[in-house]
Design a protein that fits this description.
There is one protein chain. By secondary structure, the protein is α+β, with helices and mostly antiparallel strands. Helices cover about 45% and strands about 15% of the residues. The chain has helices at about 10-15, 35-40, 70, 110-130, 160-165, 185-200, 210-230, 240-255, 285-320, 330-335, 340-345, 345-355, and strands spanning about 20-25, 30-35, 45, 50-60, 80-85, 90-100, 140, 150, 175-180, 180-185. The strands form three sheets. The chain has a four-stranded antiparallel beta sheet with strand order 2-1-3-7, with helices on one face. It has a four-stranded antiparallel beta sheet with strand order 4-6-5-8. A two-stranded antiparallel ribbon has the order 9-10.
Length: about 375
């Protein structure tokens, strides 16, 4: 007698995971919103909840992808979607414990370590299965749609369980864009990180009402100019996404700016990449280690400040040259905001500029 596998529990968990009111659509563009039961009945694609990750997923754009996990000796998936038209597949592994994401719905539940752990596992699965690195786990195919062949398995895993199936030699930072502020798994993460760090400083320069407009303008500008440059294959984020992000950042920063620990966020902690001081050192050794770290930090800060001053001087000289004016210490000082006495430490920059400009240098 053929054994019947009960998949009702895994389907019930999937239904419970989707938000009661959700976005959905026939195509990848989710143009409709309403009760999730309508989405299960009519949609081909459904928006996954913003508040938490429950599935580690990969998007495989090649034929025969539905069995790729067997070839790579990966664990049994919870859900496998196969396109009837192309044979491409999406594979998902359900987590025993949800990973809370950073959004306005759960600022206090989200912790960075589980988020990084989740991203690491998903990147390694994507890399080893030759998946699409652009998949961001924000949407999922509707498993109750006739458009897909769907396989269900009532299995769940911890992140540590899944990580054991990956090659530790594979760089888990693969497919990320590395910028001045860090490296990012996607456009949303980049814009959120950069805008958030900018807002931490900007909140003290503007009134509350003006600050909200400034955050809005910053997100709009960065999304229009930097995101397409860093993610040329994907382009800027849709208006609704960057506007929602700007609103969330502005509200959160305004709410937290007067708390005692907020100014700690303004510090560029970890910028030098120094290792932590071991806790088992003797008091004398610990004192030496702290002194060494402080000396390195002071040197780093000095060089950083010097580089910033040099950049100000260079920008001032460029401005003077553009106006076809002689390069004088007074003019450089006025335009850069750097004291004339301090300019003595940057003679090489000014002398180099005067070699370009035929007009004599007037002190």
């Amino acid at each position: 007698m053929k054994q019947t596998i009960d998949i009702s529990h895994v389907q019930q968990r999937f239904r419970a995971h989707i938000d009661p009111q959700t976005c959905y659509g026939k195509k990848k563009k989710l143009g409709l919103s309403g009760p999730k039961e309508d989405a299960f009945r009519d949609a081909e694609y459904i928006l996954l909840p913003r508040a938490k990750h429950v599935y580690v997923g990969v998007d495989l754009d090649y034929r025969g992808a539905a069995t790729a996990w067997e070839d790579g000796i990966f664990p049994l998936p919870t859900i496998v979607f196969t396109s009837k038209k192309t044979g491409h597949a999406n594979i998902f592994w359900e987590l025993k414990t949800p990973v809370y994401r950073r959004c306005e719905l759960n600022q206090y539940k989200a912790r960075q370590h589980p988020i990084d752990y989740f991203n690491c596992v998903q990147r390694r699965f994507t890399r080893e299965l030759d998946g699409d690195p652009g998949y961001t786990s924000s949407t999922i195919k509707n498993p109750f749609s006739d458009a897909w062949l769907v396989q269900w398995h009532d299995v769940r895993y911890s992140l540590s369980d899944l990580l054991e199936y990956t090659d530790p030699c594979i760089n888990s930072v693969g497919y990320r864009f590395r910028g001045d502020h860090g490296d990012y798994a996607g456009r949303n993460e980049e814009l959120f990180t950069v805008a958030r760090k900018w807002a931490y400083h900007a909140v003290f320069r503007y009134s509350e009402e003006e600050f909200e407009f400034r955050v809005y303008d910053f997100c709009k500008s960065y999304n229009q100019n930097e995101i397409p440059r860093n993610w040329p294959a994907r382009g800027p984020l849709p208006r609704a996404e960057w506007q929602g992000m700007a609103r969330s950042i502005a509200r959160w920063v305004l709410c937290k700016k007067d708390e005692s620990g907020f100014k700690q966020r303004l510090k560029n902690i970890g910028a030098m990449g120094l290792s932590k001081i071991p806790t088992d050192l003797s008091d004398a050794d610990k004192k030496v280690a702290v002194s060494c770290a402080q000396a390195l930090g002071a040197a780093y800060t000095h060089n950083l400040r010097k580089n910033k001053t040099a950049n100000k001087i260079i920008e001032a000289i460029d401005s003077i040259l553009a106006d076809n004016m002689p390069i004088t210490r007074r003019e450089v000082s006025n335009r850069s905001g750097v004291a004339r006495r301090t300019l003595n430490n940057y003679k090489e920059i000014i002398n180099k500029a005067n070699k370009i400009d035929p007009q004599c240098y007037v002190s």
